[in-house]
C-alpha cells in the first residue's frame, strides 16, 4: 500500500496495520476489550501534551491520572473531565494542533472551510493507515476485485480523494481520478473513459455525479451505467438517494461520514447503514439536556469526537457541529458497532418565522416515490425576506407551466412565503465552493446576509435578481 525507503519505518507501519486490522475485526464482532480502547485513550492524552490547543496544566493532571487508572474504566472516568474543543478554537489554533514537526507528516491538506476558516489537516503515516483500514474493511463488504471505480472529487486541498484512492488500493480495486474544470464543466473525456473502461462504481459527492448526468443528457451522451454509488461530502437523505438510484439504475450508499479534521468517523455497510468507527474514536452526544457517551442506545444530538488514532494531531472532545441520530437498532449486516444517521449541521435547519424545514423534507417533496415527466436533477434554495427561489437543473428543457406545477408541489413546506422555481443550465459548483457551499452545508444560500450575493456567479445572479423582483411585485395572496 505504501512503499517506504526506510525499512525500519516500513516494518513498524506493517505491524501497525496488522494490529489495527485485528482490532477493526474485533470491533465488528463486538469483542473489543474496553481496556484496549482505554490504553489508546491514555496514549492520546500523552500525545496531546505536545499540542498547543489545550491548557497544559489541566491536561497534565488528567494524563497522570490516566496512567494510574485501570485501562478498562479510564475513558468513562476521565473523558467527562476534559473541556470541549470548539470548532473555532481548532480553526484559530492552526499548526498549534500538531504534536510533531510538519516534516513528520506525509501530506498537507486543509478542511473545506464550509463553516469558517479552513483547518490544517495533514495526514501522517499512522493515521493514514488506520483510516484506510477502517474504511476498507467496510467497503470490502460492498466492492469486488472486478469492480472499476471513478473517483470524482474536485477538492485539491482536502484529503478525501487521496484517502479514497488509498482505500481502493487496499481493496485492489482499479480506480481513476480525473479532474473536471469548474469553468467549462466539460465531462466529455470522463464520460468516454467511464464507457471505455467499463467503470461501474462512482465515488464522490452527489452534486458532481448530477453535473455529469446533466452534461450527458444535454450533449446526447449515454448516462453512465454505474452499479454502485459511494456518496459522500454532502447531506444526502432518503429522498435524494432514491432520486440518484432512479437516475442511474445503481445502488446508492452514503459511503462515509466524517471530516478532514477528524478523519472518517462512520462508514457504510452493504445494507446502506453508516457504522461508527468506535475502535478509533470516543464518541459523545451533547444538547441542552447534557452530554453522554454514544453507547448504542437511541439518542440524538451534536456529535462530539475524541480521536484515538491521530497522535500527530489529537482532538479531545471536539464539537463537530453535526447533528446526528443513533437509531439504537442492530444492523442486519452483522457488524456490531452502533449505527449513525446524519441530520446535517446545526445551521442546516432552515428557520422561517419559527418553522423549521429540513433538507430531507424538501427533497422528499421534490422527488416523490412516484414521478413522471421532466425531472429535477439538482437544486439550490435561495432565501431573501419572504421569498424563496429554487434554482433547478433538469434532464430536459422545461416550460413555465412545469416550473409552476413543481413549485406548487413543495410550496406547502414554506407557509407564509412566496416560492418560485427557476430552471437554470448550471448551478454554482456546490461540491467545490469551499466555505460557501458544499460538504454538510446543504443547498441553501441566505441572501438576508448581503455578503452572499457575491457567491452567485453570472448568469445565475441575474436569474435570482429578476425572480426576487417579480415576487416582490406580486400582490400578496
Automatic annotation (TrEMBL):
GO terms for molecular function: ligase activity. The keyword Ligase applies. InterPro entries: ANL_N_sf (IPR042099), CapK_Type1_Caps_Biosynth (IPR053158). Keywords: Ligase. It comes from the Bacteria. The keyword Ligase applies. This is Phenylacetate--CoA ligase family protein. It comes from Streptomyces cinerochromogenes. The lineage of its organism: Bacteria, Bacillati, Actinomycetota, Actinomycetes, Kitasatosporales.
